[in-house]
Automatic annotation (TrEMBL):
GO terms for molecular function: DNA binding. It comes from Geodermatophilus amargosae. The modification 4-aspartylphosphate is found at residue 58. The keyword Lipid biosynthesis does not apply. This is Two component transcriptional regulator, LuxR family. Residues 150-215 form the HTH luxR-type domain.
Length: 223
């Protein structure tokens, strides 16, 4: 039997020590780091040349910031998924990165294992938001005019799908949801796929926003 292909990642950060640390964490998690970049221009060039599955992207970098680099990569047919690393005082960039097409956001003080899990999540086509970023994203969204009322989007959800929706709204990845519910990741992924279809949303980010809109969770009370 042929061994499963390792995920291929490019790490973009203007601090050499940070790049080295991220590379070490990913390699320890059986993720192959195929290239590194010290600024946004280099990140785009390296990613287009090496065609990784995921680019782990810093936001503030010389020559071209991570947001514009993300936008350029996501415009490319078959471009890589982008996981943005951010800090609490850079949240304003997260919203712009979302518009640019980033699939995931993680805070730089996240536990080491969560970085590997986040890379795998976005490589698999799912969106991932750190819980603190999720709350800020939703709170900003909820300051916009309320959407028109209509049928309850949760009416057709099973109890387990509703439970999964709540955990998604808390910012948990598929692996973390599987651990919480004591089921396999494949089962969680199936639940999430049905959940998105029933809610009529494109991805997990929209599912999180819908959870706040409907009152399933409230800002400051994601638990």
């Amino acid at each position: 039997m042929t061994a499963a292909r390792r995920l291929r990642v490019v790490v973009a950060d203007d601090h050499a020590l940070v790049r080295s640390g991220i590379t070490g964490l990913l390699e320890a998690g059986d993720v192959e780091v195929v290239g590194e970049a010290a600024d946004g221009v280099e990140a785009v060039e390296v990613a287009l040349r090496l065609r990784p599955d995921v680019v782990v992207m810093d936001v503030r970098m010389p020559r071209l910031d991570g947001i514009e680099a993300t936008r350029r990569l996501r415009r490319e047919p078959g471009g890589p998924q982008v996981l943005v690393l951010t800090t609490f005082d850079l949240d304003e960039y997260v919203f712009r990165a979302l518009e640019a097409g980033a699939a995931g956001f993680l805070l730089k003080d996240a536990p080491p294992g969560r970085l590997v899990d986040a890379v795998r999540t976005v490589a698999d086509g799912d969106a991932l938001l750190a819980p603190a970023v999720t709350r800020r994203l939703v709170e900003r969204h909820l300051r916009a005019p309320a959407p028109a009322t209509g049928p309850d989007p949760a009416a057709d959800l099973s109890p387990r799908e509703r439970e999964v929706w709540l955990l998604v709204a808390q910012g948990l990845s598929n692996a973390e949801i599987a651990g919480t519910l004591v089921v396999t990741e494949a089962t969680v992924k199936a639940h999430v796929t049905r959940l998105l279809a029933k809610l009529g949303v494109r991805d997990r980010v929209q599912a999180v926003v819908r959870a706040y809109e409907t009152g399933l969770v409230r800002p400051g009370r994601a638990g």
